[in-house]
Amino acid sequence: MARRSAFLAASSSDFLSSSSVSLREPRSAASLEAEALDASISSALPSRGKCMMMSRTGLNMCAIGSVYLFSEIFQMSHTDERHYNYCIDKLETAEVLDKEDVYKTCAALHGVSSLQIFVSDFVKALLAIHVLFESVMTRDINIQYWLVAHGSALTFSFIGTFEQFQFSFDSSTKYDKFQVFVACVCLIMLLPLALWNLMTKSVAKEHLLGFFAYYAGCYLLYWSSTKDIGYHLHHAFVCTFASYFYTDWSSKLNMYAHSILMGIAVQGLAFYKFDEYDMLNISNDIDIGGVQITIIYVFIFYLSIHFLSSIMYIRVNRDDLDDSDDDSNVQDYEALTCTGFLDTIEERAEYE
């Protein structure tokens, strides 16, 4: 019975695609084995592709970890722990904090990491980079990319040891001519290619929209309590944002520009941790109140309703599409019945 049903389906398909009907020749055992092999390979391809993506992601994360540790080693080699030890002695003598808080406070003040802080920050930095640079994490990135990323992290760390380069772009800084010159050189190097990629629509639009949505939300929350909002553009933030304009690696210029920005962004996380992504700043003496909680809750509720309605809309349309497919199948069956073709098929099946 099963063979007869399969034969009916195959013959019906042949009739719809051609006006002439011909008997199918029996297939050999070798052809059946080849078909079974092709089917097994096809079923294995999705899992193999997924495994390949995971392997590429793991390799890229190891390379990012190398850049992070490379930057940490440079920072440790240029850290003077005399001020750190002096801070510990003074606070322990004053007995204003317990021992654990003394070490934590002095480490934060003087850029020294304990083993616990280092391991925690290292893992969190890897997770943050994976999310922020998710658009390229599954790519097969060559060794030249990572060499340039290591070089950019080392170069930026070395340049930062000179006092004239120790400045940031924020709402309270007054820039001299040299700092303006450095900023203009950076813009001249990066802006033309970024604008070209934007015009050709070869940028990471989802990540750019995510950045805008995040900081727009932060601004609205801050603005609900104070109008005194400052900004501070850390280099890790700037490089992460700029990297979204260089994700089309069909051009080598884009790939190497992205690798330079990747190295500097990872270096910023290694040196200054997650403060690198605090672009907007307000006074720390402002406490969170009911207004801010309400705004966040209403926003989350709105997003939940939006996504739920989208899911329901997709499900309804999918059910309608399935019903239309069933109706078309019924119409095909009726057409075959009217032509008398199914009777001919049944006679051939019985003959076989």
Structure, briefly:
By secondary structure, the chain is mostly helical. The protein folds into 2 domains: 56-287, no CATH class; 289-330. It is built from 12 helices and 3 strands; from the N terminus they run ααααααβααβααβαα.
Describe this protein's structure.
Mean pLDDT is about 80; it is low at about 1-25. The chain is mainly α. Helix 6 (about 145-160) crosses helix 10 (about 250-270). The protein is built from 12 helices and 3 strands; from the N terminus they run ααααααβααβααβαα. It is globular and about 75 Å long. The protein folds into 2 domains: about 55-285, no CATH class; about 290-330.
How much of the sequence lies in strands comes to: under 5%
**Rg to the nearest angstrom?**
32 Å
Number of domains: 2
| Order of helical and strand elements | HHHHHHEHHEHHEHH
Low-pLDDT runs of 5+ residues are 1-25
Number of helices: 12
How does the helix and strand content classify structurally? mainly alpha
Q: What do the pLDDT scores average to?
A: 78
Beta-strand segment tally: 3
* Alpha carbon gap, first and last residue: 12 Å
- The 3D shape can be described as globular
Q: Spatial order of the strands in the main sheet? A: 1-2-3
Largest sheet: 3 strands, antiparallel
Share in helix:
over 70%
